[in-house]
Automatic annotation (TrEMBL), chain A:
Taxonomic placement: Bacteria, Bacillati, Bacillota, Bacilli, Bacillales
Superkingdom of this protein's organism: Bacteria
Gene3D superfamilies: 3.30.70.920, Winged helix-like DNA-binding domain superfamily/Winged helix DNA-binding domain
Domain HTH asnC-type, residue spans: 1-66
A matching Pfam family: AsnC_trans_reg
Alphabetical list of InterPro entries matching this protein: AsnC-type_HTH_dom, Dimeric_a/b-barrel, HTH-Siroheme_Decarb, Tscrpt_reg_AsnC-like, Tscrpt_reg_AsnC/Lrp_C, WH-like_DNA-bd_sf, WH_DNA-bd_sf
Listed name of the protein: DNA-binding transcriptional regulator, Lrp family
Automatic annotation (TrEMBL), chain B:
GO MF annotation terms: pyridoxal phosphate binding; transaminase activity
InterPro entries documented for this protein: Aminotransferase_I/II_large, AspAT/PAT-like, NHTrfase_class1_PyrdxlP-BS, PyrdxlP-dep_Trfase, PyrdxlP-dep_Trfase_major, PyrdxlP-dep_Trfase_small
Organism this protein belongs to: Sediminibacillus albus
A Pfam family it matches: Aminotran_1_2
Annotated family: Belongs to the class-I pyridoxal-phosphate-dependent aminotransferase family.
Cofactor: pyridoxal 5'-phosphate
Keywords of this entry: Aminotransferase, Pyridoxal phosphate, Transferase
Keyword Transferase annotated: yes
Residue ranges of domain Aminotransferase class I/classII large in the record: 34-383
Uppermost EC category: transferase
Name of the protein in its database record: Aminotransferase
Swiss-Prot/TrEMBL GO biological process terms: amino acid metabolic process
Length: 164, 392
């Protein structure tokens, strides 16, 4: 990875909608060079996706419930933690899976329409997996900050309009 | 109650100080809503959380008393280490560093300690608005040296030499420069140093923007041979650490000068705010990554803004530091004040007229790119539209 690639990743991580021409000006490259670098980063699976961070609480949509589940597993000889994780993340309800150090092994984030639906998923699908030893489900009550984005940011610039 | 008589109560000194040109413009801009401001001389970042947290912790632990006059020894030690590691200049924490209430106060006590009535101080202009008044308050005579756009607002040895006479005592340097963003390289500083040594002058080097150097590391004039002994460095936490409201700066220089400045400091200020000093200590010890992140972000915005400014018809040299672009507006036929005022009223973009930074700034505007990319893009669009209507 060279410096320009890292710089472009930094810009896109902050604003995935930054235009090629703006990025080109910011890092002092030609637009074509920036396009090539982004294409390269996508091909290498370094850039995986471009998503908006949405505060669904500000929409009329009922956005359901989110749960973080601590999962203890007994990794199988053949497949290890990665195999168990894959069995779990294949479910579309599962939004995130992380391997953790500490009291449990996998942290699984699940979204469902209702608490009941999530509880059902845990008891019928997650707990019944061969390698899963135990689960602890925590329901998420409020999002304050997600992926570095504060959900109720203070908009006002506190600086004077003009200063020396 | 007895009425005041008609005689003038105000001192002649106070009456002779000109009000800042920025003030007038500030009042105008402040009355309007939805202004996109490129007029701000401070970072758009808020102070890093760990620094704020350290100040809270200091209050919780009861560090609410005066510190030593020169500042917390621990902080001075950290400044000493920082100046060495970042800029390769060495100052002893116990004798050669004073923590001040902002770099502004550092400038004030430095001039008061060095100026006798009538002494002349050479100041490169365009320059920060406070230098000349502070020199006057100390009884000195500010002498502007005009730097030019052709030279990217760098001060040259020739320009300097022409203004030196038997009354000249001090040269004030501020590079990276507010408002032009100009920087001086080692070789250029050497040329100046030769003239300064030949005429046995002192240097006040305001290096508040040193960290915000985008193309090469800042080089301090105090590093040059024979210059350390005649240089006083002024710097602070405002710009690099996004701590403008904390009012914390410092002086670094030879003991004989600093001890005189300390006398003035102890009678007029006692010490810099103790709680802020605890925050600054945290900034020096654990703030490196944040500084680098902010510098990288300013650099990207500099690159964008300067290119865009040239594209919309406002020629602008490439500033090597600070967070200001200083494009020429001559093509529009307007004075810098007219330009800024009309732009504000028509397009709701605030910039600062170059003329407030000295006569050499006429024909230019100062645009601070310490604003979000989104606002910079909108501002460019609006300024572009404004300029299109006026290009002669």
């Amino acid at each position: 990875m060279n410096e320009k690639e890292m710089e472009i990743l930094g810009i896109l991580e902050e604003n995935a909608r930054a235009s090629i021409s703006t990025i080109a000006d910011m890092v002092e490259l030609e637009e074509q060079e920036v396009s090539d670098i982004i294409k390269f980063l996508e091909d290498k699976n370094i850039i995986l996706n471009y998503q908006a961070v949405i505060n669904w609480d500000h929409t009329p949509v009922n956005n359901g419930v989110t749960a973080m589940i601590d999962v203890k597993v007994a990794p199988k000889r053949e497949i290890g933690f990665d195999g168990v994780a894959e069995r779990i993340y294949r479910f579309p309800e599962v939004k995130a899976v992380y391997l953790m150090s500490g009291a449990y092994d996998l942290s699984v984030q699940i979204e469902g329409k209702t608490m009941k639906e999530v509880a059902f998923f845990v008891s019928k699908k997650l707990s019944t997996l061969d390698s899963v030893l135990s689960t602890t489900t925590h329901f998420l009550l409020k999002k304050y900050k997600h992926d570095g984005v504060i959900f109720e940011p203070e908009q006002k610039d506190k600086r004077a309009v003009v200063s020396p | 109650m007895k009425q005041l008589s008609k005689k003038g109560y105000l001192s002649e000194t106070a009456r002779n100080i000109k009000p800042s040109g920025i003030r007038k413009f500030f009042d105008l801009a402040n009355e309007m809503d939805d202004v996109i401001s490129l007029g701000v001389g401070e970072p758009d970042f808020v102070t890093s959380w760990n620094v704020c947290e350290a100040a809270y912790a200091a209050m919780e632990s009861g560090y609410t008393a005066y510190s030593a006059n020169a500042g917390l020894l621990e902080l001075r030690q950290a400044i000493s280490k920082y100046l060495d590691s970042q800029f390769h200049v060495n100052y002893q924490a116990d004798k050669e560093i004073i923590v001040t209430t902002g770099a502004s106060q550092a400038i004030d006590i430095a001039f008061r300690a060095l100026i006798d009535p009538g002494d002349e101080v050479l100041i490169a202009e365009p320059g920060f608005v406070a230098y000349a008044p502070i020199v006057q308050l100390a009884g000195g005579v500010p002498v502007p040296i005009e730097t030019t756009a052709e030279n990217e607002f760098k001060l040259t040895a020739d320009q300097l030499e022409k203004r030196i006479n038997e009354k000249t005592k001090i040269v004030l340097l501020c590079f990276p420069n507010n408002p032009t963003g100009a920087t001086l390289e080692q070789e250029e500083l050497k040329q100046l140093a030769r003239v300064i040594c030949r005429h046995d002058l002192l240097v006040l080097s305001d290096e508040i923007y040193a960290e915000l150097s985008y193309d090469r590391p800042h080089y301090s004039i105090a590093r040059l041979p024979e210059m350390r002994e005649r240089t006083i460095i002024i710097s602070g936490f405002s710009k690099a650490f996004a701590m403008t409201g904390w009012r914390l700066g410092y002086l670094a220089g030879p003991e004989q000068f600093l001890q005189a400045m300390l006398k003035i400091h102890q009678y007029t200020m006692m010490c810099a705010p103790t709680i802020a000093q605890h925050g600054a200590l945290e900034a020096l010890v654990n703030g490196r990554e944040d500084v680098e992140r902010m510098v990288a972000s300013y650099r990207q915005r500099r690159n964008y803004f300067v290119k865009a400014s040239n594209q919309i018809g406002l020629p602008c040299h490439r500033p090597g530091g600070a967070f200001y672009a200083f494009p020429s507006i001559r093509k529009t036929g307007l004075s810098s004040e007219q330009f800024a005022e009309q732009l504000l009223k028509e397009e709701k973009v605030a910039v600062v007229p170059g003329a407030v930074f000295g006569e050499g700034g006429e024909g230019h505007i100062r645009c601070s790119y310490a604003a979000s990319m989104e606002n910079l893009q909108i501002a460019i669009e609006r300024i572009g539209r404004f300029v299109q209507k006026r290009i002669l």
